Amino acid sequence: MAKFSDLSTEQMEKARECKSSEDLIALAKAEGIELTDEQLASVAGGTWYNCMNETW
Predict the structure, then answer these.
(1) Residue 51's closest CA among 29, 2, 28?
(2) Which residue range forms the structural domain that includes residue 46?
């Protein structure tokens, strides 16, 4: 599985287009991206947009 930090520019753009945490999790699964527990907590807690603006 790919790690979040290994996302391509195209994958980052797709992630930024997600409208909900469910969309982001579905995208991660579809792209074979492995999220850390901290990233999953951010997604579940509604602060997932912040993880899109940080380097993991």
Answers:
(1) 28
(2) 2-52
Span 2-11, pLDDT tens digits: 776 778 889 8
Dig out the tokens for 27 from the structure.
């995208």
User: Tens of pLDDT along 6-46?
Assistant: 788 898 888 888 888 888 889 989 988 888 888 888 777 66
Tokens representing 39 are 């990233």
* Cα–Cα distance, 43 to 22 (Å, whole number): 8
Q: Which two tokens stand for residue 51?
A: 């993880």
Neighbours of 40 (CB within 10 A): 15
